[in-house]
Write a structure and sequence with these properties.
Order of helices and strands: HHEHEHEHEHHEHEHEEHHEHH
CATH architecture of the largest domain: 3-Layer(aba) Sandwich
Strand order of the largest sheet: 7-6-5-8-9
Oligomer: single chain
CATH class of the largest domain: Alpha Beta
Number of helices: 13
Radius of gyration: 19 Å
Helix content: 40-55%
Shape: globular
Distance between the termini: 26 Å
Number of strands: 9
CATH superfamily of the largest domain: Aspartate/ornithine carbamoyltransferase
Largest sheet: 5 strands, parallel
Strand content: 5-15%
Structural class: alpha/beta
Length: about 325
């Protein structure tokens, strides 16, 4: 028998005040207390999912996917179901946003039917337009600049592994990202800066994070006290608790003529047991899909040091925390 949660109980689960949380678009739109609240809520939902299985009862979620996905699609679809809601997948058959019809029209039409919009798109501009013109909340499930759902799940995972790392809270954790300065590293860097987590970004020359994203992170770190390090030298990784990596070639950029060159440039930046030992890191993180023997060795990815599948599971719980908070306001 499904357990119905009284409205006042649901309100208490949200880390946000009423009307304070309307969309989930980018990491830098949330405060430290709000992010910690979402992390805490995600862990609570994970431990007691039946307490939340009617939060989305009678609600429908439209999921726009310009880019294909395994974890994002499945984690949202099944997560919404666990909250008692209904999801509708809108794939590439509808074409790229803004081509067949204006993004504003797309947003207004979906708002007629759906209670929330989840969008995995190529351009952050599409996310901004959806949020501007939709009359329902919008969640950024990935764009070219941010991957906030992934970063939230990653910090949920780090929180769950604090004991393993020998830490009392996230501010004591040292996290390094090794690889391309992309949407994943942007969100990790910004969320780390907000939370007060020391963060090191190591990328080959020419593949660093955009200056505008680095500037955002530096501003946020100045407020939280987080130490940020940016380097092209893999030997300067220093002491770390966790090392994170991602594919060297992003989805949609798989140009065969460039792949060989990219692999050669990134080869020294492979995350393996030797690098883990050099940094003294206890866990390795990866958002997947993993290109084994490229950015990470098979041996390390399949080892007990890897929390990649814990991160994958936590995508669902982190996103459910966002959904619960959106529908509690």
């Amino acid at each position: 028998m499904l357990k119905v949660i009284p409205e006042n109980t649901v309100q208490k689960t949200s880390p946000f005040k009423k009307n304070e949380f309307n969309n989930f678009l980018a990491d830098d739109q949330l405060s430290k207390s709000q992010l910690l609240g979402l992390i805490d809520l995600a862990i609570k939902i994970k431990k007691n999912p039946t307490d939340y299985n009617q939060v989305l009862a009678g609600k429908s979620v439209a999921m726009i996917f310009e880019k294909p996905s395994l974890r994002t699609h499945v984690s949202f679809d099944m997560g919404i179901n666990k909250l008692g809601g209904h999801s509708l997948y809108l794939g590439q058959q509808n074409g790229k946003l803004g081509e067949r019809e204006r993004v504003s029209d797309y947003a207004k039409n979906l708002s007629c039917y759906a209670d929330i919009i989840v969008a995995r798109v190529f351009s952050h501009d599409s996310i901004k337009q959806l949020a501007e013109h939709a009359s329902v909340p919008v969640i950024n499930a990935l764009c070219d600049l941010y991957h906030p759902c992934q970063a939230l799940a990653d910090f949920v995972t780090l929180t769950e592994n604090l004991t393993k790392l020998g830490k009392d809270d996230l501010t004591q954790v040292k996290l390094a990202y090794v690889g391309d300065g992309n949407n994943v590293s942007n969100s990790l860097m910004i969320m780390a800066a907000i939370l007060g987590v020391d963060f090191t970004l190591i990328s080959p020359k020419g593949f660093e994070a955009k200056a505008s994203m680095i500037d955002k992170a530096k501003t946020l770190a100045a407020e939280s006290g987080a130490k940020l390090i940016f380097t092209n030298d893999i030997d300067a990784i220093g002491q770390q608790d966790a090392i994170y990596t991602d594919t060297w070639i992003s989805m949609g950029d798989e140009d065969p003529s460039k792949k060989k060159q990219v692999l050669e440039v990134f080869a020294p930046f492979q995350v393996n047991h030797n690098l883990m030992a050099k940094a003294g890191a206890s866990i390795v993180m990866h958002c997947q899909p993993a290109h084994l023997e490229e950015e990470i060795t098979t041996e390390l990815f399949d080892s007990e040091m890897s929390v990649a599948f814990q991160e994958a599971e936590n995508r669902m719980w982190a996103q459910n925390a966002v959904l619960v908070s959106l529908f509690s306001n």
